[in-house]
UniProtKB/TrEMBL annotation:
SUPFAM superfamilies: NTF2-like
InterPro entries: NTF2-like_dom_sf, SnoaL-like
Name used for this protein in its record: SnoaL-like domain-containing protein
Gene3D superfamilies with a match to the protein in the record: 3.10.450.50
Pfam families: SnoaL_2
Source organism superkingdom: Bacteria
Residue ranges constituting the SnoaL-like domain according to the UniProt record: 9-109
């Protein structure tokens, strides 16, 4: 499977429902994340903790990709995360915009570099997404 297909499979998932997502990450995985909260580095077990937290807090937690670019074993994704909560199961809401760069090793997500920005209310930011073709 190509690096792009591996990353796309992850971003096509629902973090709140898909049980085996941690298997998509290399055992030596490291994610470097710059967010509004500051800089964080997560290893595979810390990523698994985050995934478990999402499952406990949300009914759905999905990605909408606008860009997915591949260069050998490096894939760059631009997307917005959407969620529904237990309290408001019929209201899907956008959460934040992300750009992630993933290095794929041994068919798994190995090194990630991610930057996120809290949602702004711009209509352009919410409607500019198109279907990604592989």
């Amino acid at each position: 499977m190509s690096a792009k297909k591996i990353v796309k499979a992850f971003y096509d998932s629902n973090l709140a429902k898909d049980e085996n997502l941690i298997d998509m990450f290399h055992n030596d995985c490291v994610l470097h994340w710059n967010s509004s909260q500051g800089f964080t580095t997560l290893n595979k077990s810390e990523i698994e903790e985050k995934l478990n937290g999402v499952k406990e807090s949300y009914l759905s937690f999905t990605y909408r990709l606008s860009h997915l670019l591949e260069d050998d074993n490096i894939v760059t994704a631009r997307y917005t995360i959407y969620y529904t909560t237990i309290e408001r199961p019929l209201k899907e809401e956008p959460l934040a915009h992300f750009i992630s760069i993933w290095e794929i090793k041994d068919g798994k997500m190995y090194k990630g570099y991610e930057i996120s920005q809290k949602l702004d209310e711009s209509v352009e930011n919410l409607t500019s997404f198109s279907k990604i073709k592989i």
